[in-house]
């Protein structure tokens, strides 16, 4: 099955974020109040791992599992979309304590209230799609 | 077993999150969770109303498989990889939360004051979750990514736009946590 490896990656990611407690509203609150190193340690270690890993992939020209060259997509240039969109996401993240990954993961932990956050997030995405061309990017 | 069933250390957790991103890169994909929200809108027929959703969502099936995996991963971790000792907060945080009428974790991942079924049935409780979701959905698509796409993938690839986005995450997060939450939860 072609999708199995992605499904397994998702299971792995879901377990890690739950056990790291990055899905916890409390941990996000604590992070934004600088009252614990936990979340900063997680993001920092993930970054160090990611930077080193991507450098190795680029330097050694490592191929993907199909043997094709790995093309790491560069982000589009811009300022307003990143600062404004980022700030809006930050407001939501600190309010409900979940970013998009944890919204799905929390469904699995049996938190039914998170369905409302998911519906809100889908609506928000839809509204962005409608207003996209009128916003500064 | 304590190491497996208790809270995972930040260094292990961070390393494994970084490896998840590298694994998806090795699979020829890019790591990002919020783009699934766009895919789901597209599947629901939003392409009729905005070109932004005119896409072939079948190309994103791999990412939806990651989402399904995440749900199952959350289930497994919560029910089978836990000894009930969760979220040991800084005591100062617990005391501060008490002044906002937020219950202490005591092994829970989420406060009942925001996520219990009783809270959900109050107009305010429902509105908080819905508005939070709206900001997350709108903000991540406007910024073109969330914590996974910008803070992990983008910064790992030393992308300046991702740094600006992460600065934005913190501007919004700090304003909410320090100024708005106390007013909202009053």
UniProtKB/TrEMBL annotation, chain A:
<keyword id="KW-1133">Transmembrane helix</keyword>
<keyword id="KW-0472">Membrane</keyword>
<feature type="transmembrane region" description="Helical">
    <location>
        <begin position="38"/>
        <end position="57"/>
    </location>
</feature>
<protein>
    <submittedName>
        <fullName>YeeE/YedE family protein</fullName>
    </submittedName>
</protein>
<feature type="transmembrane region" description="Helical">
    <location>
        <begin position="102"/>
        <end position="131"/>
    </location>
</feature>
<feature type="transmembrane region" description="Helical">
    <location>
        <begin position="78"/>
        <end position="96"/>
    </location>
</feature>
<dbReference type="Pfam" id="PF04143">
    <property type="entry name" value="Sulf_transp"/>
</dbReference>
<keyword id="KW-0812">Transmembrane</keyword>
<dbReference type="InterPro" id="IPR007272">
    <property type="entry name" value="Sulf_transp_TsuA/YedE"/>
</dbReference>
Automatic annotation (TrEMBL), chain B:
<feature type="transmembrane region" description="Helical">
    <location>
        <begin position="125"/>
        <end position="143"/>
    </location>
</feature>
<keyword id="KW-0813">Transport</keyword>
<feature type="transmembrane region" description="Helical">
    <location>
        <begin position="62"/>
        <end position="81"/>
    </location>
</feature>
<feature type="transmembrane region" description="Helical">
    <location>
        <begin position="6"/>
        <end position="28"/>
    </location>
</feature>
<keyword id="KW-0812">Transmembrane</keyword>
<dbReference type="InterPro" id="IPR007272">
    <property type="entry name" value="Sulf_transp_TsuA/YedE"/>
</dbReference>
<keyword id="KW-0997">Cell inner membrane</keyword>
<keyword id="KW-1003">Cell membrane</keyword>
<dbReference type="GO" id="GO:0005886">
    <property type="term" value="C:plasma membrane"/>
</dbReference>
<comment type="similarity">
    <text>Belongs to the TsuA/YedE (TC 9.B.102) family.</text>
</comment>
<keyword id="KW-0472">Membrane</keyword>
<protein>
    <submittedName>
        <fullName>YeeE/YedE family protein</fullName>
    </submittedName>
</protein>
<keyword id="KW-1133">Transmembrane helix</keyword>
<dbReference type="Pfam" id="PF04143">
    <property type="entry name" value="Sulf_transp"/>
</dbReference>
<feature type="transmembrane region" description="Helical">
    <location>
        <begin position="163"/>
        <end position="185"/>
    </location>
</feature>
């Amino acid at each position: 099955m072609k999708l199995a490896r992605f499904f397994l990656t998702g299971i792995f990611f879901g377990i890690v974020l739950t056990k790291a407690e990055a899905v916890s509203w409390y941990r996000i609150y604590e992070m934004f109040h600088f009252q614990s190193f936990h979340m900063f340690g997680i993001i920092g270690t993930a970054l160090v791992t990611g930077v080193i890993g991507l450098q190795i992939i680029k330097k050694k020209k490592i191929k993907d599992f199909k043997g094709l060259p790995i093309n790491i997509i560069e982000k589009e240039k811009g300022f307003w979309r990143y600062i404004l969109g980022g700030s809006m996401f930050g407001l939501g993240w600190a309010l409900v304590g979940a970013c998009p990954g944890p919204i799905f993961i929390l469904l699995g932990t049996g938190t039914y209230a998170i369905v409302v956050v998911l519906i809100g997030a889908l609506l928000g995405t839809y509204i962005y799609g409608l207003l996209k061309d009128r916003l500064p990017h | 077993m304590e190491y497996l069933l208790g809270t995972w250390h930040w260094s292990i957790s961070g390393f494994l999150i970084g490896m998840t991103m590298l694994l998806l890169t090795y699979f020829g994909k890019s790591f990002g969770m919020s783009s699934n929200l766009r895919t789901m809108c597209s599947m629901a027929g939003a392409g009729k109303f905005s070109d932004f959703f005119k896409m072939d969502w079948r190309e994103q099936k791999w990412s939806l498989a990651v989402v399904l995996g995440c749900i199952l991963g959350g289930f497994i971790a919560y029910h089978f990889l836990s000894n009930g000792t969760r979220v040991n907060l800084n005591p100062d945080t617990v005391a501060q939360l008490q002044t906002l009428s937020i219950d202490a974790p005591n092994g829970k991942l989420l406060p009942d004051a925001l996520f219990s079924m009783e809270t959900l049935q109050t107009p305010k409780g429902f509105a908080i979750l819905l508005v939070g979701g709206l900001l997350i959905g709108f903000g991540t698509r406007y910024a073109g990514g969330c914590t996974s796409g910008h803070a992990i993938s983008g910064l790992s690839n030393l992308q300046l736009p991702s740094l600006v986005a992460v600065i934005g995450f913190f501007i919004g997060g700090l304003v909410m946590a320090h100024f708005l939450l106390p007013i909202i939860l009053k």
